[in-house]
Amino acid sequence: MLPSVLRCASPISTTLAFTRPLAHFRPHMAPDPNRPVEGAIRTKLTQQLEPEHLEVHNESHMHAVPPGSESHFRVLVVSPRFDGLSLLQRHRLVNETLAEELKSCVHALAIQAKTPLQWGSNPSIAKSPPCMGGSKGDHTVEEKLKAGRD
């Protein structure tokens, strides 16, 4: 378990190319070393999918988890690698890329995976609904929260 936790919290550095910033989202700066899971997600998606646009939003504050948690995320990935792939195939690519985080420290991942053409015609990100307490029945949440802190 320890090696997977360390992979989940490994230090990272990355630069991203943004094609069109959204006015209602603040631009993403260099990864925050206090947010290792978010940084790992950003790095892996950048390396594997070479996105033209990438947004990683930690939505843990919207859920019943301790302050500072990194357990619930929404990602928007716009990549030419998605051209010709079905939505299901795109989601599988994202899930495969983040398999380690999903096994160890990420409880929920909302994915928007768009081609550059789709993004060009509709440059928006969906909003997540408020927490409905779904983690109360998931006994792995406590383990994942601990893994994200270690």
From TrEMBL:
This protein's assembly is summarised as:
Interacts with GLRX5.
Q: Residue ranges of region Disordered?
A: 121-150
Q: Which SUPFAM superfamilies match?
A: BolA-like
Compositionally biased region (Basic and acidic residues)? 136-150
The record's section on Gene3D superfamilies has: BolA-like (3.30.300.90)
Name by which UniProt lists this protein: BolA-like protein 1
Briefly state the protein's biological role.
Acts as a mitochondrial iron-sulfur (Fe-S) cluster assembly factor that facilitates (Fe-S) cluster insertion into a subset of mitochondrial proteins. Probably acts together with the monothiol glutaredoxin GLRX5. May protect cells against oxidative stress.
Question: What family does this chain come from, according to its entry?
Answer: Belongs to the BolA/IbaG family.
One of its Pfam families is: BolA
Under the cellular component aspect of Gene Ontology, which terms does the record hold? iron-sulfur cluster assembly complex; mitochondrion
